[in-house]
Amino acid sequence: MNFNIAVLPGDGIGPSVTLEAQRVLEAVGKRFGHRFDFTSGFIGGISIDKFGQALTQETLKLCRKSDAILLGAVGGPKWDNPSAPVRPEDGLLAIRKELKLFANLRPVKMYPALENSTTLKPEIVRNVNLMVIRELTGGLYFGKPKKRWATSRGRRSVDTMLYTEKEIVRILKVGFELAMTRRKKLTSVDKANVLESSRLWRQIATEIAREYPQVAMDNMLVDTCAMKLIQNPSYFDVIVTENTFGDILTDEASMLAGSMGMLPSASLAEMPGPGKHAFGLYEPIHGSAPDIVGKDIANPIASILSASMMLTYSFDLPREAKAIEMAVISILENGYRTSDIMTPGMKKVGTIEMGKLIASQIG
What we know:
Elements (H helix, E strand, L loop, with lengths): L1 E9 L3 H19 L2 E6 L4 H7 L5 H8 L3 E6 L14 H11 L4 E7 L12 H4 L3 E7 L11 E5 L2 E5 L6 H16 L4 E6 L5 H14 L6 E6 H10 L6 E4 L1 H11 L10 E5 L11 E5 L16 H13 L4 H16 L2 E2 L9 E2 L2 H12 L1
């Protein structure tokens, strides 16, 4: 089978980790008889430097004619001026909105070989295997009004957390459908004791739960969830939450897996079903890490596992996706580590070598 992939390396370590994900996909193609054609585009800071825009129509056109998108990271201190008219992150928000990528899936899994790479006790993180589903095109990041202004009494700003019933229903249904394929347990996370949008979210979650009697559903406040993720992470199976909460909680949850360099993500326009593939954007959850650019020490595993998610959700190639994950597990069990997950007695390798090792395990 032939697949066209739009590659948006972005800024910072984005190009280096994305290159290793491509290397692994090429190894998959060679072993299983597929062809992956990669076409590069620009997003984020590099796009601002070249075109004055964080996301151009040309890049959008490339993405729309591709089967899936592989993205690196955006941003960096070069573009951090808060008064700048355009910022790298604008490109991420725009591509999500333009391509209707409303469902962000972020799996958090502790691989046994990394139990001692986290700052938490091994018995706390052991057997952690959860999925956070983050609503991606609504809430504070997109709600209007969103502005900043000056008054005689000082500067002011406003952001709006806006959600419609339709937006809440569709993301919760993604969560329940996914829960049906896992442990049949779903936690809907909100801030219903304070926020009106969360009260609507909780009401709708409770209503939809009646349509899925096989799934055990509970509602949880976001601050309670943040605490329980550290106290008892194995409690969770599927977490569904709004945009801002999901962004924060998954950064916290990355520590359960040892490092942000271990967490992939998929941003989907729809959930795949029998005989139906989902168009999606696949990226590691980490940022551009400008302080380690060019040092060959970034962890490419999150990007590589994002490619594995691409094979699952956009290409319906579960066997090939499993081959990538098993290759990652094998390399970790053989003691190879990048700097972020390094522990005494292990073998330290760089970005490129880690990518080559995983690709070689695929065959």
